[in-house]
Amino acid sequence: MFTIDELATIPLFSALGEKELEFLAGAVEDIHLIPGEYVAHEGEGRFLAVVVEGKTELTKLVNGGEQVIGVRRPGDLGGEIPMTLGTPLPASMRAVEPTRVLKLTVEDFHTLAAMAPAVSAAVGAAALERMEMLKSATAQPIEPAMFVIGPRVDPGVHGCDSFLHRNQIRYERLDPDDPGAVTRTGGAAAVAPFPVVVLRDGTQLIAPTMRVVATVAGLTVAPGRSQYDVVIVGGGPAGLTAAVNGASEGLQTALIESFAPGGQAGTSSRIENYTGFPYGVSGDELASRALQQAKRLGAEIVVTRRVESIDPAEMTVTLDGGDVLRTKSIILAMGVEWRRLEVDYIDRFVGSGVYYGAAPSDAGLAQGTDVYLVGAGNSAGQAAIFFSKHARSVTLLVRGESLAESMSHYLIEQIARNANIRVETRSEVVAVHGGDQLEAIEVIDRGTGTTSRRDARVLFVLIGAEAATNWLPSEISLDEHGFVLTGTDATKAGQWTPDREPFALETSAPGIFAVGDIRSGSVKRVAASVGEGGAAIAHVHRYLQLPH
Ligand SMILES: Cc1cc2nc3c(=O)[nH]c(=O)nc-3n(C[C@H](O)[C@H](O)[C@H](O)COP(=O)(O)OP(=O)(O)OC[C@H]3O[C@@H](n4cnc5c(N)ncnc54)[C@H](O)[C@@H]3O)c2cc1C
Closest ligand 1 atom, CA of 280? Predict the structure, then answer.
C-alpha cells in the first residue's frame, strides 16, 4: 500500500494537496511484480500505471511473436493514451526486473481529475508526446518477415501461403517475374522448384519444408519439455480451447499440430453462428485470437509435427521424427480430413488447380477467374459466397437434387440472391485435364446424361470429411466410421476396465479424452468443439485427482 508521503514523491502527483493524496492512497493498487510478470495485456481495458521502482517494457504481438516497443522506468506512465482517447491498451506491459507499479482504475482517475485537473492535463500531455513518437514509428513501413516467391497456383507456394497466413507470420508473395523478386534473388527464382523463400538477411531457401519455414519464422517446432500434464493432439478450435483452459489452470500443456493452428475453422471464410459475433467472424480471426490467448497463457504450441502413435499404458505420445513425450493425460482433437473426389488423375492437380477445403487466403486464386466448387454443405455454400466477391463467376456443382437437403436456409437464400453464383444440381465432375496445372473439367448432368467440358483453372472440393484415426492404438474404441467413442458409448464398446464410470469425454483408454469433430456423436460445429475443448480440461483435472 502506498503512503501519502510515498505518493507525494511521484512526479505526476507531487503538486497534489493532502485531500487528493488521501483519496489517491485509498484508491491506487500497489503491485509488486517479478521479472516476466505482466501489469496488463494488449487489448485489455483502460487504466493508468506509474512505474515506481524497477523497470517494465511495453510489448506488442507482431508476426505471432512478442516484440518489445518501449521501456518504462520509475516515474514513467503506462496507459496514458487509452486513458486520454478511450481506446483499449495498444500494448502489453511486463516487468523486466523486480518492479513496483501503481495502478489506478479509469473511474478513480476521473474522480482524481475532477479534484485536480492538472493531473488530467499532465496525462493528456504525456499521451500527446507518446503519440508523436508512435507517429514516427508507424511511418516506417513494416518489413515482412519473409518473401515467398513463386506462381500462386504452384502447390508448394499455395501450401506456404496458407501456412504463413494461418501462423500469423507477416510475409509477401511475389510472382517470379516481379521486379521485387528479381532483385531479391538476382533472377534465380524465375525457375522451379518453388517457392523460393527469401529472408530479411537475404538468405534464400529453395522449396523448403514447412518445418524449415516454421523454424526460420521463429515458431515452435520441437517440444520444450519431455513431461507434460496434458498433451493435446490437434490445433483446431477444440484443441486450442483445451490449450487455453489447460494453461490458464496451471497445467503443463503442449499442443501438437501437424500443420498450422486453426484446423478446419481456420479455412472458413465466415462463421455466422458463433456466439458473440453478431456479424460473423472469419475462422482465421477466431483461430488467431485463440492462438494468441493460448500462447499468452503459457501453452506450448508445436507446429508442423504429427502425432504418430500413443501408448496408453505408458502414457506416451510419439511425434514424427521420433520425439517421445511423457504425459499424465491426452486430449485427442484431430478433427476430420476432407473426403477426396474419386476422379482419375485428380491427385496430379491437387494444389495446382484442385483444392480441398477453401480458405480466405485462397481469394487470390479466384481473382477474376471462373471458379468451380464441388459440394452442397454449408462449407461449400460459404465458400461460394466468399469467392463470388473475387471471381468472374462461381459454379456450384451439386450431386443431389437440391441444396435444401444439405445446406442451411440462410446460405441458400444468399446464393439465390447472388447473380455471380450458378448452381448446377445432379452434376458431377467425371474428368480433369491439364498439363502442369488444371485447365479443364468434364461435368456430367445426371438428369440428361450429357457431359460437357468446361475451361477451369480452379476447382474447390468441399464434399465432407472423414476421421483419420487408423493410427490410434486398439485400446481406444472407435465407432463404425472411425470416430472416437467417449463416455458411456466407450464403456459399451467393452474395453473399459477401471472400477469407475468414464468421464463424459473420456475414451475407452483411461486418461485419454476426445473432443470436437473427431468424437463420435459430436455436433460438427465450432461452438460445440470449443465447448468440448473447455470441458475436457475440467475432466482432466478430475482425472488427475483420482488415486493412480
Ligand atoms: C470451410 C468450412 C466452413 C465451416 N463453417 C462453419 C460454420 O460456419 N460454423 C460452424 O460452427 N462450423 C463450421 N465449420 C465446421 C468447423 O470448422 C468444425 O466443426 C471445427 O473446426 C472442428 O474443430 P476441431 O478442433 O474438432 O477439428 P479441426 O478444426 O478439424 O482441427 C483439427 C486439427 O488437428 C490437426 N491434426 C489432425 N491429426 C493430427 C495429428 N495426428 N497430429 C497433429 N495434428 C493433427 C489438423 O491439422 C487440424 O488442424 C466449417 C468447416 C469448414 C471446413
Answer: 8
Distance 263 CA to ligand 1 centre (A): 4
Residue identified by cell 529472408 is: 199
Which ligand 1 atom is the nearest neighbour of the CA of 337?
30
Distance 488 CA to ligand 1 centre (A): 25
The answer to whether the CB of 343 falls within 8 A of the CB of 440 is no
Q: Are strands 393-397 and 370-374 parallel, antiparallel or unpaired?
A: parallel
Say if CB 26 and CB 112 are below 8 A apart: no
Residue ID of nearest Cα to ligand 1 atom 49: 263
The crossing angle, in degrees rounded to 10, of helices 155-166 and 283-296 is: 50
Domain 146-216: give its CATH architecture: 3-Layer(aba) Sandwich (3.40)
Instruction: Report, as an integer, the average pLDDT of 210-226.
Output: 93
pLDDT at position 65 over 80: no
Which carries the bigger pLDDT value, residue 407 or residue 61? 407
Q: How far separated are the first and last CA of the chain, in Å rounded?
A: 45
Instruction: Give the residue extent of every domain in the chain.
Output: 4-138, 146-216, 227-336+467-544, 346-464
| Cα of 354 from ligand 1 centre, angstroms | 20
Q: What is the pLDDT of residues 11-59, one digit of tens each?
A: 999 999 999 999 999 999 999 998 888 888 888 888 899 999 999 999 8
